[in-house]
Structure formats: structure tokens, C-alpha cells
């Protein structure tokens, strides 16, 4: 009898809940395009997030607020064409779900229909409960997002650690419990104290995926371009860089330019 660990063929929302039960950590990274998604998927990353961080990373905006639902669908559809195994979760962008639950459902339906993604993510707790219910009633899985919620940046003014004070910590725990009760299959916790994040992960039975939330949670997410070292100016404490692609790419471009200008490229074997 084989003792080899069973490989998950295709990750589903249920797989993630089972992984938490078994104490297996969940890996999650962002992707916004086909080529990146294909590499991330083939590396065995469990969840691919088509994050509204595309607004920063792809489009160069200061915040996540400007990206549109149409643009998110374009990114998500490109990602879906690149994957075989990962679960694809798509951020509902700012302005596509806050007005009312019907609008939230319409936006989620557009994402599912037009991109082929597997689930949506939206920011907030109690405030978005009715919207989450509507989306779930249509059979669309929902991931929550608490703590630092970048779509509310102008309400807070900074990207500092959230829920350091007792009152905000209590609200966060309440919101996490509410998200589980409402039916979310997982929740992202962004930039909160590790001790609080661990407490939340222990209190609820759905997976808690952390970013800047310490090691006591059920999985981790990073922006792929950050962990590859492409976003040079972005230096939060929680980020671990696995490559220095900014430098490597810059050197490659510079070498190419030198080769073109010197006439070294193309050589005899690189032409017809
Ligand atoms: N490239 C990228 N990576 C991300 O992780 C990311 C985005 N973009 N865009 C959307 C949100 C915004 N996020 C952020 C933004 C800032 C910090 C942050 O720690 N900023 C400062 C500190 C700010 C402060 O303490 O006042 C830093 O140290 O870089 C963390 C997460 C996470 N998301
Ligand atoms: C940072 C992650 C959690 C996110 O929401 C995004 O990339 O948009
Ligand atoms: Mg996001």
C-alpha cells in the first residue's frame, strides 16, 4: 500500500476547508495574466488570486480604487486560460458591490460568466453581509477580506497595521465569525497582529489566509510581483523576496540594448 500523500487534482473551495481540518497550510499568490498564471499553477500553488492590486501592479495607479469590473474580468479571463489545477479567486473591485446586494450579485455573476473564475473575494464584514448572502444564494463561492482593506484607504489614511486596539480587534473577531456563519469558504486577513490572527484562525473553521498576519493562520498570500522582487519600491516588513527580478530584468534589458547598438545581436545563427 502506497504511503505517498494524495495529490489534489483540482483545488476546490471544499479542498481548502479540508486542508485546514488536516492542518495542511494553503499557498496563494496573485496573477493577472495568462503567462504568469500558467507558471504559478504549474508550481503547485493552491489558490490564484486575481487581485485588484492589478490596479497598482499592472496599471500603475496609486490605489486599488480605479480598476474597473471590465478590467478585472479581462485579467481574470486571461488567468483562467492559463490554469489546470489552482482555484481562481477574483477580487470584486471598488464600486462593483458597495451600493446594494443586487449590484454585488450582478458583478459577481459577470465575473463568473465572463472570466470562468471559481470564486469572488470582497472586502469588509458586517457592512457587506447582505451582499455576500445574495452572491452565495446564486451558487457563487465567496472569500472574505478583513483587517487592512485597501479599498477603504481614504477612510483610514494609512496602510499601517490594523486592529492593534482592543475595540477594533473585537470587531474583527466578530466580523470573521459573521463571515463564517454567512457562508464564506475562507477569509483573507491583511496586516493585523500575529496574535490576533492566530486567535481568529482558531475561532473559525474556514481557512484564514494571511498577508502580514503572522504564522498562526492557515495559509499565506503575497503579490507575485512583490515576492519576485519586481516591485522595488514596495518594502513592507511582511514581504519575503524570493528573487531580485527587478535587477535581473534591468540587467537583461540593458545587455540587449548594448548588443543591438553594438551590432552583436542578431548574429549569424539568429537570422535566416
Ligand atoms: N504591489 C502590491 N502589493 C500588495 O501587497 C498590495 C498592493 N500592491 N496593492 C493593494 C494592496 C495594498 N497593500 C498594502 C499596501 C501597503 C502596505 C504597507 O505596509 N505599506 C508601507 C507601510 C505603511 C505604513 O506603515 O504607514 C510599507 O512599509 O511599504 C501593505 C500592504 C497590499 N496590497
Ligand atoms: C493582497 C491581496 C490579498 C489582495 O487583495 C490583492 O492582491 O488585491
Ligand atoms: Mg485586493
TrEMBL record:
GO molecular-function annotation terms?
A: 3-methyl-2-oxobutanoate hydroxymethyltransferase activity; magnesium ion binding; methyltransferase activity
The biological process GO terms on file are: methylation; pantothenate biosynthetic process
Which UniProt keywords are listed?
Answer: Cytoplasm, Magnesium, Metal-binding, Methyltransferase, Pantothenate biosynthesis, Transferase
Q: Does the keyword Methyltransferase apply?
A: yes
One cellular component term (GO) for this entry is: cytoplasm
Gene3D superfamilies per the UniProt record, alphabetical:
Phosphoenolpyruvate-binding domains
In Swiss-Prot or TrEMBL terms, this protein is called 3-methyl-2-oxobutanoate hydroxymethyltransferase
Q: Write the lineage as a comma-separated list.
A: Bacteria, Pseudomonadati, Bacteroidota, Flavobacteriia, Flavobacteriales
